[in-house]
Structures are given as structure tokens and as C-alpha cells.
Amino acid sequence: MKDVDAVEAQPYVSFMPYRHVYDALKAVADRYPTRRALTYIQDANTATPPKIWSYAELLADIRRAANLFSALVPGQQPRVAMLLPAIPEAHLTLWGAETAGVVCPINYLLDTEHIAELVRVSGANILVALGPNDELDIWSRASDLKAHCPQLLHVLAVGGARDHPDFEQALRAMPGDVLTCSEEIKVDQLAALFHTGGTTGAPKLAQHLHSNQLHAAWGAVQMYDLKESDVILNGFPMFHVAGAFVYGLSALLSGAEIVIPTLLGMRNTAFVQRYWDFVERHRVTFLSAVPTVIATLLGLGGKDDQRISVRALFTGGSPLPSELATAFEKKYSIPVRNILGMTECAGVVSIEPFKAPRTPGSCGLPLPFSKVKAVDSNGEECPADTTGILRLKGPNVGPGYTDPRRNTGTFTHDGWLITGDIGHVDAEGRVFVTGRAKDVIIRGGHNIDPQMIEEALLQHPDVLMAAAVGAPDEYAGELPVAYVSLRPEANVSLEVLSEFASERITERPAYPKRIEVLSSIPLTAIGKVYKPHLRMLATQHVLTQRLTKAGLIDRVDVSVEDSGRGLMVSFYIRPNSNDSTAEATIKEMMNPFALSYQVKPRINRG
Fold it and tell me: If we measure between CA atoms, which residue out of 288, 292, 342 comes closest to residue 315?
């Protein structure tokens, strides 16, 4: 990667020559018309031929989608809601909608009421959704949305559905050689509305301008050292900024090939078991995965020559344990690079450059023409290596939420985005995240607002107080757990309480995996719930379970403390235990967890 200072010394127009996303995609298609843009793996059988779009074919289908959306709502701006998994039609919908108007990708795992509210608040007049499908049921939540959303005029089904237009057939009826959209796109024009996960009450929709998305994606190209000869395996959902921009638009802007790993993505266990076979077949050069998937890949076999094409693995979405990255690099000789992103800045805050060495704990350098700083409680910038709340400013930062009242505490009047992360910036400008000022629970890269769980539990007449936190999990990163204190003389079972809460929680991923009754919920001196203590309890519970499973519970003691820069786990090996065996087992057990830990001998006293 070029030196950031040298890049920033040039005029911005030299760094970013494109006016809008369609302008950029057209330039790439004109340059590489016959190169592969999208390769869709249809199933986990390596013998099944993939579906392929060249850049010329992709651009033509994007034009068709844009023309279709404009034709469906004459005289109106197309606002297209999208309920699709990571399939090629999601790319056509996303980029076609941004070309014609505004897109609103929606998490298809949400319940119908939440989806309907997002459709209403976004002002969507068109919906593109996956039709009836044996592998993934989205249609049951999409088919009757028109009845709940008065402004929604059209619902198109990918794959077809009774009494609804087929999206692919409608596309084929549109011209692919010319855009019929009447208005020219402006660089500061609204392109998309991306909802933040785990909202309660009114949905929280982050606005993206074309300029925000272009800067985030093109900046990533520079940091990744992406070339037109590269092939990136992108299994992230397209309703998430990682799938759309971090590993999506960035690849398309460079002329690289995106390989899409089946309709279920990395949730397809059969595909995951043959992961390296597909990497070899498609000559993948860049992998993308959240830390929990990295842990899964560590357990796979495969031959060294299957991975000979791979240049690096990029990761983000949740904290990256240094031990996990080191273990992956050691086993596969594939460099791991970390990314920090947010929905509110089109997915990228900072990236560890591909050509620079990995710095343990680092989330990399801010994108060119942007700045990250840590500030203290007075809003003053902290010196290098001093902990504070991280803020971001740059062309990737969006204009705020659709409801400006929600901007308070996140967007400042002078253009800074408050990330809500606790961390520091070192003397070289590298960004480090050591905790979260917000209490958001991150499950598999998706945000869950703990208030949603707490409010549901507090509706029960026997519950006095409730607090939800994230418990560490090898696969999801975090799972929601809840702690409650009960009213005097209350007598309610945990099973009843769990069922009561789940009936009132709008997101299935937010259902608490465990509820525990405490005699009292820990509070701060001013009466606020002290969640660090609850995270310590949750972590202690999980690790005690894992020690039992590993056969170490009689040989090792575990304690969890709040170090002030995150949780610190200490494992104490009891005297007369086999230290080397226990320590090796603990290291293997802790690899998937984003937790700092140490192993010490237990010293007998007296």
C-alpha cells in the first residue's frame, strides 16, 4: 500500500475520481468487460457448475434492475427494500436500486413486525424478496407486507411466487444497454438506508451517501492491495455493511472476482466442511471471515496445496483474539488482517494494511483522508496510547440517521462519528479497541440492544430488576444472557420467565440463552446497573462449563476480573497437576474466545 501521507498529499479527486457508485461500476466494466465479477456456488457439491456474471453482464443487469425499479413507480423516486440472502440477485437489487433511487437492505432474520416497521420508516415503495425456498424461509415474512405498509406498491419474488411478479422475468423485459432513469445521480445524493441491529421502538436507519460508500470501498482496496486478478470469498450477508461494501463493493471497484458461497453462505455446514476444496477450485486469493469462523476453519483438514493461491484473510465484526490469529497463521501460513467498521460509516473505520506486519490487538490504520482519535470525558483528544472513547471523521462518515433526534451521542455537529468503543491510538496512528462504551451485544457480527431483553423481562409482575449482557461464545462471539432480581415472595420458574420474555422479544437472535436469578442486581454508586460485574459472572459461568467439558475442572481454578481495559481471565493450575498438559488444553480451549487470559500455578498458602 502507498504511504498514507503520500496518498493524502494528492487532491482528493485524484484519489476518488467517481461521482457515484454506478459511475464507478461502469468504469470498471468498461475496463474489464470479460473478467468475472460474480461467481455463485449453487450448492456444496464441487461438481455443480457455478453461475457466473462477467463485469459487462453484471453492469447490464444492474441497468435492467434500475430501469425496472424506475418503471414500477413512475413519477416517484424508487425506494427499494431488500429481503435477500447473499445471492447474485442481491447485488443486482442493491446496486440497481442505488442507481435508480435508494435501497434499504433488511435483515431477513427479523420478525414480520420489525420488518414491516423498517419498510414503513424507510418509505419503501418496492420490495424484492426471496420467494418460497426449501433452504431458507424468507417469503413467509415478506408475502403479506403490502397489507401492513400502505406505501409499498410492489413485491417481487426472486425465484417466483404465486400472485407475485418474478424478479428475474421482470429484469429480462428491461433494456440492459442504457439507463432510462431520468435524473442524474449526484455525489452527495442519498444511496442507502442501513438499519442498525437490535433496535427498540422506532427503527434506527443510518443514511449512506454515494460518496460515503465509495470512500469506504476504495479505501479498503488500497489497504487490502486488491488487484483485478484477485478472487475474494465473500459469505457475509448483503444486509450487513461487511457483505455489501467491506468485501463487496471494494472487490468490484478493483475489478476482482467475488465468489458467493451458496444461498446459506457460511451457515451451510456442508460447504464449510469442503471449504478448502472450493478455495482451491476457484483459486481464491482473499478470505473473509468473522473470528468465530476462523476458529471453525482451524479445525478443518485439507492439503497445503489447496491454499497456495490465498494471499490473506481479512476479519472483523467482533474482537480478534491475537492467539486465534497467530494459531491460524501458524497452521495455514496465511496472514490475518483485522478491520474495524460501523454501519454509520459504510462499514470501514480502519484496516490493518496487507503489506504491513500484523500488530497484535490492532484494528489497523484509518482510511486515507480520515482520522480516528480517542477523547477523554471532556471531549479533549487523548495523547498517544491513552485510553478514551474513539471518534472518526472522514468522507466515509454518513450524514446521520433518518430521525435526526437519534443523532445525539453518535454524530457531532462538527462531523465526528462517536463509535462508542473504548480504545486508544498509538504514535503511528494504529487504532486499538479495548472495550465498548455501549452495552450492545454482538452476536455473529449483528448488534443486539440489551434494552430489548430487559424491557421484556420487566413486564413480568414478579421481576423487580433485569439486566442483559453478552456471554462469550466460540461460534457467535457473544450470546445474550439475562440476570434478574425478583420481588419479595415471588415464585416464578426460569422456564416460565424465559418463555414470557421470548414472546415479547421481536428478534429471535435476542432471546436470552440463559436467565439467572440474583438476590440483587449490582449497581453503581449513582444507582445504575453495573454491567462489568455481570459480564464477569457470565464469563465465569461459560469458562467453568468449558473447563468441565475439557476435564480440567478438578485441576484448574478460573477467575475473571475487570482490568479497566476489558476483562482478564486467570487460570490457576492446582499443585500436583500436569502443568504442561493443562496449559496446552487451556490454550486450545481459549483460542476462539475474544478474551485476554493468563495461566498461573496455584500457590498453596499455609
Answer: 288
Q: Which residue do the cell numbers 468522507 mark?
A: 395
Q: Cα(43)–Cα(155) distance, rounded to whole angstroms?
A: 27
- 448 CB contacts (<8 Å, ≥6 apart)? 197, 198, 440, 441, 442, 470, 480, 507, 509, 510
Beta bridge partners of 129: 83, 157
Look up residue 309 and give its DSSP letter. T
Q: Are residues 110 and 207 in the same domain?
A: yes
Give me the pLDDT at residue 596, please: 84
- Cell numbers at 464, concatenated: 423487580
Q: Give the pLDDT means over successive 10-residue stretches in the chain (606 positions).
A: 73 93 97 98 96 98 98 96 97 98 93 91 97 96 92 97 95 95 80 73 84 97 96 94 96 98 93 96 95 84 91 86 86 95 95 93 95 91 93 97 92 94 93 79 78 88 90 89 91 93 88 93 70 92 93 90 76 79 89 85 60
Of 373, 395, 424, the domain-final residue: 424
> Of the candidates 438, 481, 483, which has an alpha carbon nearest to the alpha carbon of residue 458?
483
Q: Which three cell numbers stand for residue 605?
A: 498458602
Is 433 inside a domain boundary? no
Helix (H, G, I), strand (E, B) or coil at 546: helix
The 10 Å Cβ neighbour count of residue 369 is 18
Kindly report the CATH number assigned to the domain that includes residue 518. Answer: 3.30.300.30
Strand partners, 436: 421
Vertex 217 angle, CA 229 and 351, to 5°: 90
Helix, strand, or coil (residue 40): strand
Q: Is residue 6 part of a domain?
A: no
pTM: 0.80
Domain count, the chain: 3
**Amino acid residing at 156:** L
State the residue range of the domain holding 387: 17-424
Residues facing 388 on adjacent strands: 423
CB atoms within 10 A of CB 555: 20
pLDDT of residue 605: 46
- pLDDT score, position 330: 93
Q: In 10 A of CB 408, how many CB atoms?
A: 11
513, 529, 545 - which closes a domain: 529
Taking the alpha carbons of 252, 223, 293, 47 in that order, is the dihedral positive or negative? Answer: positive
Q: What is the DSSP letter of 211?
A: H
Q: Are 127 and 152 in contact (CB under 8 A)?
A: yes
> How high is the pLDDT of residue 527?
55
- Measured in degrees and rounded to the nearest 5, phi and psi for residue 515 equal -120, 135
Largest alpha-carbon pair distance within the chain?
Answer: 85
Residue 276: inside a domain, yes or no?
yes
In the prediction, which pLDDT does 257 show? 98
- The set of cell numbers assigned to 341 is 467498521
